[in-house]
Amino acid sequence: MRFPRYFAVVLITTLCIQSSFAMTRAQLKNSGKLLKKTCMPKHDVTEDQIGKIEQGKFLEEKDVMCYIACIYSVGGVVKNNKVTLDAMVKQVDMMFPNEMKDPVKAAIENCKGVAKKYKDICEACYYTAKCLYDTDPSNFVFP
Hints:
about 65% helix
């Protein structure tokens, strides 16, 4: 079966566009700075409280929990006051470097039931983020 020429052009263009949107880990980390600047003052947290989340330092404080929820909300993965893991997967597909996509999506799959255990969105986001870190610390990125 032969594919029409326009199909090949569309396929190549789509692949180029998808790969051009993927960021390096450094670019991904840098893009989180705006989220961080938005959410830190909203929840009155300091760099000492939240600066090492990416290294697994999760302080069990309400302000820290709500900071994480703010990051997820502004980042588009909280909808209708619920963690939307499908939105996380879409963002991973769109933004993450290719070598991180599968491991991060596997961590998301591993943590899919965590948020349902908590009625409070701050707690749901906090424990989801903690699960993602615990599942795969080397591929966990957080502003």
